[in-house]
Amino acid sequence: MRIERKLKMGMVGGGPGAFIGDVHRKAALMNGKIDLVAGAFSRDPEKSKPMARELFLEGGRAYGNYIEMIEKESRLPEGIRIDFVSIVTPNNLHFPVARDFLKKGFHVVCDKPMTVSVQEAKELRGIVEESLRLFAVTHNYTGYPMVKLARDLIRRREIGKIRKAVVTYPQGWLSTPLEQTGNKQAAWRTDPEQSGPSGCMGDIGTHAGNLTEYVTGLKITHVCADLTTFVEDRRLDDDGNCLLRFDSGAKGVLHTSQISVGEENDLAIRVYGEKKSVEWHQEHPDHLKVKELDGPAQTWSRGNEYVHRISPGAARATRLPSGHPEGYIEAFANIYRNFAETLLAQLEGVEPDELALDFPSVEDGVRSIQFIEAVLASSKSEKKWTAVEK
What we know:
The protein is of the alpha/beta class and 390 residues long. It is built from 13 helices and 14 strands. The strands form two sheets. A nine-stranded mixed β-sheet has the order 13-12-11-10-6-9-8-7-14.
């Protein structure tokens, strides 16, 4: 059965002053396959309604809370009610909101980290499997074309057997007690009641760990971690350093920081094989460096046919010709597009394009939380190595 309409999206969170909710909205709408039709944008109904007016939503579909949203959307006929919900709340609400929407038969896109504990993550995985609903977690850095190229070069064994991976994500925006100044983004990210048990490592370390496993195709099995809270009176870590062991025998280093003065969002990954290495920087996302032992270093540029021949995933994720920059929102949009095309295929009863299945799943969400819990345990332990739960 051909679906002759756009998918209908609801949103929980993303109210006035929210950063990531606005990014999700722009990304979801970019491909022309999704319409935002409903939302519970704030825990304060008086803030949710103005947000709905700002977004030109139909009257009556700005809800006071997500429970009301589930109840009322469930009563609407198919094709009118939302097909899926995008969850862009603080971390502590990801699990209950996702759980309740899934149990009512809605598909879910959830911002990272998926939950605040492994117990919640495993329970949510079980609910996804039982519900037969589609679920995505927005580890958005996997949506960049040149990240997909790096992954595919490694899959093709172009760099040889991996020996070492180094991933770094320094930021400087929390170098001062910004949370004490009324900054909304800093306040919830440094509050364990909302952010969960980890600050910096939970916020951006999840991205670094996920990116490493995505690009290399390897699993992190053990960590040796040291977390620090540098800013006085801060309740969660703002800097972290980890040694990594992988299931192949490769080794790694992971560093994340939110007190690295002068840094913005310099997520970078370097993977060293027996023959070559690859290097990608998020602040210069259109280029991938490829180096070898006895030869010139190369810089591969997004949008060129030589990239597309090697990596159909990179070709699919590319929107503009080379030289016209693509970036952060487009990477989110690539996840939404793949999710939407997979969901449309499911609704039509056909097999999705294999490339459309390339978006972070509930299993990726579980892996990220297992990694964070191992890092937390390692940092508190006197032992050198802590196993990452399988």
